[in-house]
Design brief:
single chain; 436 residues; alpha+beta; DNA polymerase, domain 1; Beta Polymerase, domain 2; 7-stranded mixed β-sheet; 3-stranded antiparallel β-sheet; 21 helices; globular
């Protein structure tokens, strides 16, 4: 049973309730083999819009005029709320001005606290319920002591790491990384930079190393047994890797070859999380002196300690052994170290965007293949112990398709070459999130 305050909150956002408490349509559409990507995204977009409403919809026309609400969603609202099916009593007293104001303040505070990296909706709601209404409140010991180490770092750099990074800044970070790690690494920018974006939420750097040749074979089930999540994520194993000790993490090629040198050179400012396959943290954007040099390393380190300069987020990701490194010069920086045979698959995965990657992975699945950041794989049955009446043999293995470049992979999928700057499917679909 809803309390009075909860009922009023529902009343103020009843269209949101329709889409969140009746997720059947969106869920069913998401699970269809031939799902309509546009329809699923339309649901998600509308949910975001209704979540921000601070008043009840008075007419279907009002719903239709909301940016992000299409004709299909508006029709569902009309059928549910404006055709005699509204389950909420219209006689419910409207909330007082004070109640509206307090509810708005609460929601604004929850939204504000979530600007801190690592603070999600649940944590933000708990903080607000405890009386934390601002970022300055969050710095008070009674609230600050409840934060994780990563959230404390997020609060420290909250004014900077959510800011975008320009192409010039990304190139500056690239130059610094290139000059401060082993020359054996081949480095190039990926992500939204490679897609032609003028600003990005992070910097994606792909690292290739001539001696890095290990290519992990997928240990996932055959195509017919794969879940949609496994297909879209490009997973390589259905077994969750064991947690590594701090010593094992710091002995990894990612930490020793990339993170540690950049930390010693005054680029890495703080670590949000670390592992053998993924590192996330904050970096300080390097600056060149008039003579073109990077200046003194000690000055950069002192600037980090004093919180002086421009800081952005950086993520380093290591997928099994081909590694994905993500930095953030108080912007995001993503670096990936991959085997040479994975070059094409890695560039596709690390260029994106998200919807483009989902689309080509579903395409691969429809052809009986599996695409991830390590390569394009085809299921091969070994014939042993296979029931002749089975629709698909379950005894077999994943074989790497010879497709070393992006062009090769797209050709295997029956697709023409798509320039990186044309891979902005999220933009085409009307997404408003920061480029990734």
């Amino acid at each position: 049973m809803l309390t009075r305050s909860q009922f009023r909150y529902v009343y103020l956002s009843r269209s949101y309730v329709l889409l969140t408490y009746r997720p059947k349509d969106m869920h069913e559409e998401s699970e269809k083999p031939d799902r309509n990507t546009y329809k699923v995204i339309a649901f998600k977009s509308a949910i975001r819009v209704f979540k921000q409403l601070d008043h009840p919809l008075s007419s279907i026309e009002e719903a239709k005029n909301l940016k992000g609400v299409g004709a299909g969603i508006a029709k569902r609202i009309e059928e549910h709320f404006f055709a005699g099916n509204d389950p909420l009593p219209e006689s419910l007293p409207a909330p007082s001005e004070k109640e509206r104001r307090e509810e708005n303040q609460r929601r604004n505070a929850i939204e504000l606290l979530q600007t801190v990296s690592g603070v999600g909706a649940v944590k933000a709601r708990n903080l607000v319920a405890a009386g934390c209404m601002s970022l300055s409140d969050m710095a008070e010991p009674r609230y600050y002591d409840t934060l994780t180490a990563a959230q404390k770092i997020g609060l420290r750099f909250v004014d900077q790491i959510s800011e975008p990074i320009t192409r010039d800044q990304a190139e500056t970070v690239l130059d610094f990384v290139r000059q401060n790690i082993s020359a054996k690494f081949e480095i190039q920018l990926g992500g939204s930079y490679r897609r032609g974006a003028q600003e990005s939420g992070d910097v994606d750097i792909v690292l290739f190393h001539p001696l890095h040749v290990h290519l992990p074979t997928p240990t996932i089930p055959p195509p017919s047994k794969l879940t949609r999540k496994a297909i879209l994520s490009g997973t390589n194993s259905h077994v969750k890797p064991a947690r590594m000790t701090k010593a094992e993490q710091e002995a990894s090629p990612l930490f020793q070859g990339v993170v540690k040198p950049l930390q010693q050179r005054g680029l890495v400012a703080a670590t949000l999380s670390t592992g053998t396959k993924k590192w996330q943290g904050v970096i300080r954007l390097p600056e060149k002196e008039e003579d073109g040099s990077w200046g003194e390393r000690t000055n950069r380190i002192k600037a980090i300690e004093a919180n002086e300069g421009v800081f952005r987020r950086m993520d380093l990701k290591l997928a099994d052994l081909p590694l994905t490194v993500t930095f953030s010069a108080n912007r995001f920086l993503i670096c990936s170290l991959v085997a040479s045979k994975s070059r094409g698959a890695a560039l596709l995965a690390l260029t994106g965007d998200t919807e483009f990657n989902k689309d080509i992975r579903m395409k691969a699945h429809s052809l009986g293949m599996h695409l991830n950041e390590f390569g394009l794989w085809r299921w091969r049955s070994n014939g042993s112990g296979v029931d002749a009446l089975s629709a698909e043999p379950e005894v077999g293995y994943w074989e790497l398709v010879k497709a070393d470049t992006e062009e090769d992979i797209l050709a295997e999928l029956g697709m023409e070459w798509i320039e990186p700057n044309k891979r902005n499917f999220s933009f085409v679909l009307g997404k408003t999130t920061t480029a990734k």
